[in-house]
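Why do we care about 3D structure at all? Because function follows from shape, and shape follows, mostly, from sequence. That is the central idea of this module. The next example makes it concrete: a single protein chain, its amino acid sequence, and then its structure expressed as tokens.
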Amino acid sequence: MKKLFACLAAVGVLATVPFAADAGKLTVACTPVPHGDILRHITPDLKARGVDLKILEFSDYVSPNVALDAGEVDANYYQHGPFLNNAVKNRGLKIVGVAPIHILPMAAYSDKLQDIRKVRKGGKVAIPNDPSNGGRALLLLQSAGLIKLKPDAGVTASPLDIASNPKRLRFVEVEAAQVPRTIPDVDIAVANSNYAIAVGLNPVKDSKFLESSDSPYAVLVATRKGNENNPDVKALVDVLRSQKVKDYMKRYEGSVIPVF
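And the structure:
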């Protein structure tokens, strides 16, 4: 297991390497914004409940699940349910969701358009390259009327599942974290809110088309199978679903929506 973390550190994914904790010590993997910020905000509250929280930030969507499945952390907090389900199915991970916390609405951005429906024929569209977030982006574009997916495409749709593309849009699939950085180079970029926030974009104010507020893509706390009733994990969920956290999320001005 230590070799895994050494490899991650070598490629710049990992900044610090606290290992999974004993009772009263909880190590949680996350992505930086807003999850790392929220976890830092509740650290004193967990301390008051006898839980010493260690936060391990990753810059990608794969490593937090790898670390959790390997037993190097006790929980993670960064992914929505469809992403977790796809990771479990495709990688054979022994991970389960514990409780939903918030929605990060996906949104379409453009430096070239005020209305994405007026995109030029042959326009370039950047979407995440992982199945669940890429599918989510395509569903957003479908709701905007730009494409139509095959009826059985589902939440892991890919550009191959597009049944109708009247604008002949060209899709550029990139790592989710890099989608916001493609905005100057494409006509439309469909990005996850946490990565948009990280580069100074507000999905509510800066996007050209925003995912519906009834999105099923709630971000959740996950842990290893069999660890769902761990008292420290339960304390983490309790504090994350508190009024204090709901009030804290207001600073994101609608780009982080609590589901409790």
